[in-house]
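May I ask for an example protein's residues together with how it folds?

___
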Amino acid sequence: ICGNKLTVEKIIQIQRALKAKGYDPGPIDDVIGPRTRAALTQFQKDNNLPMGNINIETLKALGLNEN
């Protein structure tokens, strides 16, 4: 995902989706901090997704679209 597509709303959606799937992104605060990053990495690892960044595959696995 390009940086310009990663809006405040998208970050909050990602954090809520991680939390709904049992991962702890920390506070739902639109900041990709260490806890959100760790939850995202663990989700990617658990689902055999490319790790290290927010990509289309990860968004789809979280139930979010890329727009």
Notes: The CA atoms of residues 11 and 32 lie 7 Å apart.
